[in-house]
Design brief:
The termini are far apart. It is built from 22 helices and 11 strands. The strands form 4 sheets. Strands 6-9-5-10-11 form a 5-stranded antiparallel sheet, sandwiched between helices. Helix 1 packs parallel to helix 4 and helix 3 packs antiparallel against helix 4. The protein is globular. The chain is of the alpha+beta class and about 400 residues long.
């Protein structure tokens, strides 16, 4: 057994198959992948890694298994899946996942090959575990997959507390101990026992508050868009680099590769010096046309190039960032009210209010080099059919300005 001191859960005892997995290259690689990607450019202390998070997920999974009296091979599979659930992440966590998914067809939880090969596969088989069964749990399959990847999973319980702790914000405050103790399986479904509607609501509220203040902070959004664009150009400009190799890099490897290519060296400099693009447009959902919300990757790249050309800029100097429409998967969590199992969205009056808040917080961004924000903003409003009469915001001379004021300025 190995005991590890953790900044969130204090001492974590790792044993069995999880201890054997701890020093495999696939797990140790997670020491070099930041949990929150580029968020450290907004919150300097957000330097925690996927390795720390994996330990926390394993710890909470162990507690859940104990209190639900799950043992034997089922428990060992869950322990292994908890430790391995993030080994499929590419550099900077989710930041370039959309790119690698387009190129490889794989998300971070598609880990069948990773678990079947090398030391991880050897360890799993030596402990009597079939790698494909463990990979299925990582993907949320089956009864026990709900513990690792589901609406009430221990992954979410750890990252909310851990991210709040390392960023220093008070919004991710939940009680993972109570949540874990309330977990139970009823007819194969993972639910929270009676008297825990408020505990389930705490997950909703924490996620809803962390999103605008941390996960979608404008600095994090801008740096993520810049990193994603640079990684795409790296892949296209380096004939020796495959998408699968890019997916298996860590943060340091990606930054070095970006620094060494002429096509991407300027981004590497900007990242190192925190010389980020600025917001030319920051638009609310109501002012964005449906066709733009539905635009594909190539269409958005063409729009960037058109706006850049019209503003006498390099195509790399304009980024159009259209996030997915808001979702709230936590609202489908199941809680027991008396003897009845209900979805939280049906039981809690908070769900509707929080969903409304999510839509109000959604923003489309257009980013560019600082001297060009005004002319890029005007061009973007025209080419993207943005509603300047709506509640839209742009950056003008270092201060937020409504777009009707912005567009009318000469």
């Amino acid at each position: 057994m190995t005991t590890i001191k953790d900044s969130v859960h204090d001492h974590i005892e790792v044993e069995g198959v999880a201890a054997d997995l701890l020093d495999t290259p696939a797990v140790q690689r997670l020491r070099h992948i930041k949990q929150l990607g580029t968020v450290q450019l907004a919150y300097p202390s957000a330097n925690h890694t996927r390795f720390e998070h994996s330990l926390g997920v394993y710890h909470l999974a162990e507690q859940a298994l104990d209190q639900m009296d799950v043992d034997g091979v089922d428990a060992e599979r869950v322990r292994a899946a908890a430790m391995l659930h993030d080994v499929g992440h590419g550099p900077f966590s989710h930041n370039i996942e959309s790119l690698t998914h387009r190129e490889t067809g794989k998300y971070h939880d598609d880990v069948d090959e990773l678990l079947a090969e090398g030391q991880v596969g050897d360890v799993l088989r030596a402990n009597g575990l079939e790698p494909s069964r463990v990979a299925g749990l990582v993907a949320g399959e089956g009864k026990y997959g709900q513990l690792v990847s589901g609406e009430l999973d221990v992954d979410r319980m750890d990252y909310l507390v851990r991210d709040a702790h390392h960023t220093g914000v008070p919004y991710g405050t939940i009680d993972p101990g109570r949540l874990v103790r309330a977990l139970r399986f009823v007819d194969g479904e993972l639910v929270l026992g009676p008297g825990n509607v408020q505990s389930a609501e705490s997950l909703l509220v924490a996620r809803a508050l962390m999103n605008p203040t941390v996960y979608s902070h404008h600095v994090a959004r801008i740096s993520k868009a810049m990193l994603r664009s640079a990684a795409e150009r790296l892949l296209r400009s380096d004939p020796d680099l495959t998408a699968e190799e890019l997916r298996r890099m860590d943060d340091h490897g990606l930054l070095v590769s970006l620094r060494l290519r002429e096509e991407t060296a300027e981004f590497a400099r900007r990242y190192a010096e925190r010389d980020l693009y600025k917001r030319a447009v920051w638009a609310e959902l109501g002012g964005v046309p449906d066709w733009l919300l539905d635009a594909g990757h190539e269409e958005l790249r063409e729009l960037e190039a058109e706006i850049a050309a019209a503003c006498d800029l390099d195509a790399r100097e304009v980024l159009v960032d259209v996030p997915a429409e808001p979702s709230m998967t936590e609202s489908t969590s199941r809680v027991m009210v008396g003897d009845e199992i209900r979805r939280l969205g049906r039981q809690s009056p908070l769900v509707k209010a929080l969903r409304t808040a999510q839509y109000q917080q959604w923003r489309l961004g257009v980013y560019t080099v600082e001297p060009a924000t005004e002319r890029v903003g005007r061009e973007a409003v025209d080419r993207l059919d943005l509603d300047v009469a709506g509640a839209l915001v742009s950056e003008r001379r270092g201060r937020p300005a409504t777009l009707d004021e912005f567009v009318g300025a000469e």
